[in-house]
Amino acid sequence: MSFAVMSCHGVQVLQSMIHCADLSNPTKPLEICMKWTDRSMEEFWRQGDKERDFELEISPMCDRRLASVEKHQIAFIEFIVHPLWETWADLLYPDVNNILETLEQNRDWYQARLSAPASVSAGTNITNSSSPSSSPTPMTKTVSSSNEEDSLMK
Fold this sequence. Notes:
This protein is mainly α. The chain has one domain. The protein contains 6 helices and 2 strands, in the order αααααββα. The protein has helices at about 5-20, 30-55, 70-90, 95-115, 120, 145-150; strands spanning about 125-130, 135-140. Helix 3 (about 70-90) packs antiparallel against helix 4. Pfam families: PDEase_I. Keywords: Hydrolase, Metal-binding.
């Protein structure tokens, strides 16, 4: 195999590794996963709020009035994150098996919340009511100090 081909494969592996890192939130322990999910969803919802303000069509997943965090996370895990990490695990087996296990546990947690009666699902810390015109949608949100957030980013 030529150096150019090996170099090309090396670049592809590194690009894949960066993509895995970018999509690693659902592979983290549940508490960390939930905090980053909350941040991501809030970013989507703010975009939807701006689109609503400008009377534009609201992008998928960006309407806080219709949001189902659980459905979004399950689809994100099943169709994007799991296939990516499964491929990465094939390359690095068994070193990343625990990552796949955590990913599947988090997907199962969201699935259980989706399947739970409304009274259980609504038992979150705060509701999604940032927009004055929106009706509250249950959302898992943990308020933390900046020190906690800093430690999660390390």
